[in-house]
Amino acid sequence: MSLIQLYIPAEVAQPTVSELGELGLVQFRDLNPDVNAFQRAFVGEIRRFDEMERQLRFFTSQIEKAEIPVRTNLSNAYSSRARSRQELDDLEERLSEHENRLLQMNNSHETMQRRYLELTELKHVLRETSDFFQEAASHQTEIRNSFDEPSAPLLDDLESGPSQEAQGAGLQLGNVTGVIPRNKMQTFERILWRSLRGNLYMNTAEIDEPVIDPSTDVVVEKNVFIIFAHGREILAKIKKIAESLGATLYPIDSSADRRREALLDVVRHIEEFNSVLVNTTQTRRQELMRISENLVAWMIIVKKEKATYHTMNHFNYDINRKCLIAEGWCPTNEINTIQTALRGVTERSGSMVPSILNELKTHKEPPTFHKTNKFTVGFQGIVDAYGMAKYREVNPGLFTIISFPFLFAVMFGDVGHGFIVLLIGMYLCMNERKLAHVDGEMFQMVFGGRYIVLLMGAFSLFTGMMYNDIFSRALPFFQSGWEFHVPDDYPGKTVIVAEPNGHTYPFGIDYAWHGTDNYLLFTNSYKMKMSVILGVIHMSFGICMVYYNAKFYRKPIDIIAGFIPQMIFMQSLFGYLTLMIIYKWSVNWFETDAAGHAVRNSPPSLLNTMIYMFLSPGSVAEGDRLYPGQAFVQGFLVLVAFICIPWMLFLKPYYLKWEHGKARAMGYHQPSEHNVRVSTDSTRSEEAAGAVVADEVEGEEEFEFSEEFIHQVIHTIDFCLSCISNTASYLRLWALSLAHAQLSEVLWGMTLGVAWDMASKYGPNIGAFMTVAMFSVWFFLSIFILVGMEGLSAFLHALRLHWVEFNSKFYIGTGYAFQPFSFATVLSEKDAV
Q1: Major place of localization (predicted)?
Q2: Is the pLDDT of residue 667 over 50?
Q3: In degrees, to the nearest 5, what angle opens at C-alpha 733 toward C-alphas 731 and 736?
Q4: Mean pLDDT (the chain, rounded)
Q5: N or C: which end of the chain has fewer CB within 10 A?
């Protein structure tokens, strides 16, 4: 990575930055960190594009609501070309015109919809009121007023008005009619009954026609109601209660002839409004269709221009030179590409002053850039999730491509399950173009790691063949090296011991072990020792990376006081354990001489050997001896391991102290955080105001021997203890492999095994039915539990082995990612809701 400085003439600043955004190769630094975002040079332009973006979001919501397809097939030239100021002004004016027309049509459409809704509700009210009045008249004997005469009817003559007796008594009969949402009907009735104490007559009817609320465009179910009561105060109270619950009130005349005339008039108005609504809707849809043809192109233009000016706010403006000054990081091998792009912009714009690119020397730590492709991006993501690599340090993502799926497969080894995972990975990889646009956070996470899934399946096939295991069954590919001589009168109660036949099974575990009584004991011992060997190799490889980091950063003390003692300590203890495991496997412990006596003692326990290696160094019991001279070798290795501890603990801090004292004696002092190197034009001192900071010498912490020593104590203790705990942590390879194999065997025995036992007992018909039923259960549980849940568990454990056990040996991970200004990244980001 290189730190570059750009001098961009003001008249071509916008197309130049836009061209750099198309390239996506420069990560610009903010040269105005202390300036408020609202006080930057181009805040006005950004607000302008914010407003245009708001208009486009409004158009998008309206088009989606109208279910109009949006044109997306745009030419690259049209979508990538930088826009001139005149074109942007025309686009702003065009968007404003579209918005004003659309808002006007929306308001007109909403007003007419509200009026149409009122007429529709009034039509239903007028239709239902005739029935309500007739029904109320038939129940007038059941309704009494609350005046002097208890037997006087509340409703005397609804059509002709109250009787003379009622008028003389001062009775004023009235009604309240309207429409209310159906879900509030019960609440409305309860409130009226309790507040008026039953002094009312109410009737309702449902509106069968769908009623659309114009403000929300949601279908609302409503009911027509009419309430008869007497007294102005009671009627006013009823109206307030109805309006508080969202009801719409419509005054209805008590005369049947007038109601009939009003109904005819309402029906005529509805037909007229319906015609106007259709025309308005069609005009609005045509307007939206015209907008939809260019909506995506406009959105791309606005987003690009907004990102361009946002980036330009990071630059400094030199008043004297009339240019913008920018700094940023870019890949060193892409500097020529950037210079070519700058020359192209200058030629197209016709500017007489070219943009200038200078490469600056700096002590700042550059961002980390890992060039990936669709195959490696998933594996690199695993490493980056742990921590971004420091600039130019060893990137473990390359090794993860092999080690991660392999460690996963060690825990997941099964030919059948591995083949299923392989098929899933192949499907995702072969249909990646189609599946790339599928939404869903979980699916996109799996899809992003499709090549990880593919390799996990392939490696699981390999380890499954090594374990000779397919759905807990054996694979008899080659001739077995063991033979069982079963007599004809074998009762099945005694143990038969297999005998070697002279053949050696060429690949993996011999299938003859499957189904034997000691199969679990054999695989337990084998997988446990295999896990220790793989763990020691994996961690030793991680320690080797310390050497390459120290060599690149030119820190020989990290090799002398770090890599060498760490490697010696690791190999003295756990490398020796690995050699003992291999030696124990290679020796025939049951070999006999000509007289039939055992040549060697019984194989010793390696766990006890490692324990007594520390408890009694230099001595080994005769019954626990593994090889001649074992006591001396173990005592020497323990001594070497203990020597490595003070080696790691004291050498580095005292070396740093000596180095610091030597620098002090030579006259070097600690750099101040205020010392900066400024790039200025030496020919004109008055132009120094236009200079920018090219390199800031960051203030380094004063050397403190105590702090360095404490840090080294913590590091030494952590390394020594982690060698033990991390080696034990790799035993998860054995544990999960054993659990996976046993779960597979149990599932087979409880499903298909039961079905086939029933077939032998109850005949082929029942057996066939049970086989089909149990196969469905077995297949579903195999996919859900053994592939899904067990696969996820093995994935997480493999992730932990890489993050904790492997990366902790060498990976610094204190860098920051290279995030260049790129239109591809800007356009891929979804709008925040």
Answers
A1: membrane
A2: yes
A3: 110
A4: 82
A5: C
Instruction: List the single range of 33-42, 367-376, 595-604, 741-750 with lowest mean pLDDT.
Output: 595-604
Rounded to whole angstroms, the Cα distance separating 508 from 284 reads 72
Closest residue by Cα to residue 532 from 401, 717, 724: 724
Residue 692 has pLDDT above 80, yes or no: no
Number of other residues whose CB lies within 10 A of the CB of residue 546: 20
Q: Is 551 left (phi over 0), alpha (psi -120 to 50) or beta?
A: alpha
Which of the residue ranges 417-426, 547-556, 662-671 would you say has the lowest mean pLDDT?
Answer: 662-671
Pairwise CA distance, residues 50 & 38, whole Å:
14
Instruction: Give CA–CA dist 418/463, Å, rounded.
Output: 9
| Burial annotation 639-673 (CB, 10 A radius, 16+ → b, else e) | ebbeebeebbbebbbeebeeebeeeeeeeeeeeee
Distance CA 594, CA 590 (A): 13
Token pair 């907008």 in the structure block, residue: 291
- What's the distance, CA 811 to chain centroid? 24
Measured CA angle at 653 (ends 648, 656), to 5 deg: 130
What pLDDT shows up at residue 169? Answer: 40
Which two structure tokens, joined as six digits, stand for 647?
């080696």
Closest of 169, 229, 226 to residue 195, by C-alpha = 229
pTM, whole model, 2 decimals? 0.76
Q: Do domains 1-29+315-367 and 121-143+173-273 have the same CATH topology?
A: yes
| pLDDT over 70 percentage in the chain | 88
Listed in sequence order, the residues at least 6 apart from 386 whose beta carbon sits closer than 8 Å to its beta carbon are 802, 803, 807, 811, 813
Site of tokens 């320690």: 543
Closest among 821, 805, 812, 2 to 388, alpha carbons compared: 812
Tokens of 272: 């007229």
* Rounded CA Rg of the chain: 43
Tell me which of 447-451, 603-607, 681-685 is least confident.
Answer: 681-685
CB 759 within 8 A of CB 766: yes
CA–CA distance, 637 with 621 (Å, rounded to integer): 18
Asked if the model's pLDDT at residue 822 lies above 80, the reply is yes
Torsion on CA atoms 243, 247, 249, 250, rounded to nearest 10: 170
- End-to-end Cα separation, the chain, in angstroms: 36
Q: Does pLDDT of 172 surpass 60?
A: no
Q: What percentage of the chain exceeds 90 in pLDDT?
A: 27
Coil vs helix vs strand at 181: strand
Q: Choose the weakest-confidence range: 320-324, 608-612, 720-724.
A: 320-324
What is the dotted CATH code of the domain comprising 1-29+315-367? 3.30.70.240
* Band of residue 73 on the pLDDT scale cut at 50, 70, 90: low
Among 217-221, 587-591, 699-703, 712-716, the range with the most confident prediction by mean pLDDT is 712-716
Integer Cα distance of 659 and 592 in angstroms = 64
Is 86 exposed, middle or buried (CB count within 10 Å of its CB: 0-12, 13-18, 19+)?
Answer: exposed
Q: Which two tokens stand for residue 44?
A: 């006005």
Q: What pLDDT, on the 0 to 100 scale, is given for residue 557?
A: 92
* Residue 171 DSSP code: -
342 vs 348: CA distance, rounded Å:
10
Rounded to an integer, the average pLDDT of 580-595 is 83
Spatial separation of the C-alpha atoms in residues 707 and 620, rounded to whole Å: 43
Domain 121-143+173-273 classification at class level: alpha beta
Retrieve residue 137's tokens: 């008249």
Alpha-carbon distance of 6 to 316, in angstroms, equals 10
**Would you list the domain boundaries of the chain?**
1-29+315-367, 121-143+173-273, 375-591+604-666+705-809
Strand positions, DSSP E, 649-763: 676-679, 692-696
pLDDT greater than 60 at residue 65: yes
Question: In DSSP terms, which residues pair with 462 in a beta bridge?
Answer: none
Chain centroid to Cα 176, Å, comes to 58
